[in-house]
Specification:
Layout: H1 3-43, H2 47-71, H3 75-109
Helix pairs in contact: 1-2, 1-3, 2-3
Length: 110
């Protein structure tokens, strides 16, 4: 491996690590919000919301697996993998936000 190749590989590895760290923080934040929403939903026995939370937990595990796979991905697949993860994170966050709004509205009515 030439010096140029080694430098490029190190740069790519550092970029992936920074990205993984950012996504991991997003995942952890999402988990924390989900735990809060789940506690509220369970206290009110909101079965539909509990089911939605369970689906979000499954989506979270899928994202975590994709992040893990990204660490071992070939350089030619990194951009596509990151785009896929970004889309899933955006959907995950949006769904959590919608669920939070729905729960808040539901609890305000009761």
């Amino acid at each position: 491996m030439t010096t140029k190749q080694a430098t490029h590989a190190a740069t790519t590895a550092a970029t992936i690590k920074a990205y993984v760290d950012k996504i991991t923080a997003d995942i952890q934040q999402g988990k924390a919000v989900l735990e809060q929403l789940e506690a509220k939903a369970r206290s009110k026995r909101a079965d539909a919301e509990i089911a939605a939370i369970d689906r979000l937990k499954a989506a979270n595990r899928t994202i975590e697996q994709k992040v893990h796979d990204l660490k071992n991905a070939h350089e030619s697949h990194v951009q596509r993998a990151k785009a896929d993860i970004d889309a899933e994170i955006a959907s995950f966050k949006s769904t959590i936000e919608d669920l939070g709004t729905r729960l808040k509205a539901q609890f305000a009515q009761k």
